[in-house]
Amino acid sequence: MKVTLISIPVRDQEKALKFYTEKLGFLKKKDQPLEGGNRWITLVSPEWQDGPELLLEPAPNHFEPCKVFQDALMEAGFPYTQFDVDDVEAEYEKLIKLDVDFSVKPTKMGTVKFAVFNDTCGNNIQIVEML
Amino acid sequence: MTFYETEIKRIKDSCFSNDSQIETVIATRNFIDTNFDKDLKLDFLARLRFTSKYHLLRLFKKYYGLTPRQYLMDKRIENSKKNLINGMTVTETCFAVGFESLGSFSKLFKTKTGKSPSAYQKEQFSRSKLDLEF
Hints:
Strand content of chain B: under 5%
Structural class of chain A: alpha/beta
Radius of gyration of chain B: 19 Å
Order of helices and strands of chain B: HHHHHHHH
CATH superfamily of chain A: 2,3-Dihydroxybiphenyl 1,2-Dioxygenase, domain 1
Order of helices and strands of chain A: EHEEEHEHEEE
CATH class of chain A: Alpha Beta
Largest sheet of chain A: 4 strands, mixed
Number of domains of chain B: 2
Radius of gyration of chain A: 15 Å
Number of strands of chain B: 0
Strand order of the largest sheet of chain A: 1-4-3-2
Largest sheet of chain B: none
Structural class of chain B: mainly alpha
Oligomer: heterodimer
CATH topology of chain A: 2,3-Dihydroxybiphenyl 1,2-Dioxygenase, domain 1
């Protein structure tokens, strides 16, 4: 078995695709139509295009418990998942300029530095730099 | 303050409150990052930080979840991939990232990536060629 896919629940796939590619800089890898206007959309990191794919999954629109869970995480400020970056501070400055909303500014904790932002699709996302 | 921030603060206070230990492991990791191609021994890393080698081993594992040697091996494999993609031969790559024998390099590379260094290199080359042809 191989780990190749990370799924992330989003309320609006098209909006998520725009945010994750235009603001965060991911590249679209797959975009396949499914029933009912849903799509199988996956993204990859530009610097690791054969690495794991990020699936933008419309689950909260079709399965109520997923929506409840997502809302609860959002309200408590918990990140749904996290991405590695080389420099949290630089990434923070770049995203702030693109009007990305941060709930946690770059913070040091032991051997990591992290920050948390809102992906505008229902999730908090954490970026982490290993010190 | 959100529940997440409260939790982070609690974890920080209980797990990451010893600044001198954290400084030691961060300095050790930075040293490995810039010297992974050298013949690094735990004794030497420990002497750099004026600590015993078993103490350093425990600290590194506590804060990074890996032993210094596991971290070093991952670092070397990561860099060997870059060298192979850039066209360096397998033998040159092996010594350039700090391995002492071709056998141990090839074996570890295969364990970590699922392919031998030469198979990995061929695959990367044919992939970039394919991009041009299609």
